[in-house]
Amino acid sequence: MAAVASGGAARGCPVLLLLLALGRAAAPPGGMLYPRETSSRERKELGGLWSFRADFSPGRDAGFVQRWYRQQLRQTGPVIDMPVPASFNDITQDPSLENYIGWVWYEKEVLLPLRWLQDDLNTRVVLRFGSAHYYSVVWVNGVQVMEHEGGHLPFEADISSIVQGSPGIPCRITVALNNTLTPHTLPPGSIQYMNDKTRYPKNYFVQNIRFDFFNYAGIHRPVVLYTTPSVYIDDITVTTTSSESIAMVQYQVSVVGSTLYSLSLSLRDQEGKVVATGDGPAGELKVLNPNLWWPYLMHENPGYRYSLEVKMQAQVNGVPLEDVYMLPVGIRTVHVTSTQFLINGRPFYFHGVNKHEDADV
């Protein structure tokens, strides 16, 4: 199978060379908790219509050569509205966009709350992408803040130093996104140039793929801005063991920004009742007569989850800070034998897999 793009990159594949020149972005240190609103954290959704432009230049590199990220995208040339999250391939009826291979550009301008922009309030402002296929470069107000390779995982950056101190000025987020598949991507692919000028236009290339689904591309999951205190809960790891009468919830919490802090934890059931408490960065919570997490159709009350409230308190220059995070927790055990996959000791039958996003059913 092959996805075709005419007027493609010049021979030698500048699209791929540009990817290699950018390099592979290293994973950020620490954790990446899902952005949830709590008493100490705010969240701003950036979904909706973004400005969009595909780079149809022969080398697919005009956006980088002309530095489109330094100004509003509409000032670089014609743009269209593009929903986020979505795949850009099927939004319009333009076949050149449906089969496009190379760099596309997104842009969103957003006004941030004043309380986020005062740099003396010990507030972090973080920009997070749920996923974007496949290679992303992100700028905020013309300043590059991150790169990410991989279309299936979230990535984020602390943009506090860029946006704070400039109240009333829109925050301009620019994303360059490349959907070219290489032998090193997942899924893999390769670029093939058609050099017979009697049969193909100049620079005509084909994206070869060896899988049975369409290579959708775009910003595929929500984009959000969220805040934390400057000292914050960075990661929470939870593992569980259980029987019918008792469960043990082991936890480990990491905090970034200070080494002087205190932690307290409360585990609540779905009625809000506290069933266990703990303190410190690591420990174990004991739950009597637990409600176990079960898959759908394996129990009359499937998917039961507790809520683990983690509260961190610290001081920065004499100013008290508090960060609160709520983590849903399901209590269950998983075991694999030579013939069975067991959840809470019972065999689980897998079904409903291998359905692509464009399957009829």
Textual characterization of the structure:
Keywords: Glycosidase, Hydrolase, Lysosome, Signal. The protein is mainly β. The chain folds into two domains: 42-179 and 215-228, Jelly Rolls, CATH 2.60.120.260; 231-347, Immunoglobulin-like, CATH 2.60.40.10. Helix content is 7%, strand content 42%. A hairpin with a 2-residue loop joins strand 8 and strand 9 (143-149). It is flat and about 75 Å long.
Give the key terms:
361 residues; mainly beta; Jelly Rolls; Immunoglobulin-like; 2 domains; six-stranded antiparallel beta sheet; glycosidase; signal; carbohydrate binding; Glyco_hydro_2_cat; Ig-like_fold
What is this entry, summarized?
It contains 5 helices and 25 strands. It is mostly beta strands.
CATH fold type of the largest domain: Jelly Rolls
Order of helices and strands: EHEEHEHEHEEEEEHEEEEEEEEEEEEEEE
Shape: flat
Distance between the termini: 23 Å
**Class from helix and strand fractions:** mainly beta
Architecture of the largest domain, according to CATH? Sandwich
CATH superfamily of the largest domain: Galactose-binding domain-like
* Spatial order of strands in the largest sheet: 4-3-5-11-8-9
Largest sheet: 6 strands, antiparallel
The overall pLDDT average reads: 90
- Tally of separate domains: 2
Radius of gyration: 24 Å
- Low-confidence parts: 1-12
- Please count the beta strands (DSSP E, at least 2 residues each): 25
GO molecular function: beta-glucuronidase activity; carbohydrate binding
Organism: Steatornis caripensis
Family: Belongs to the glycosyl hydrolase 2 family.
Keywords: Glycosidase, Hydrolase, Lysosome, Signal
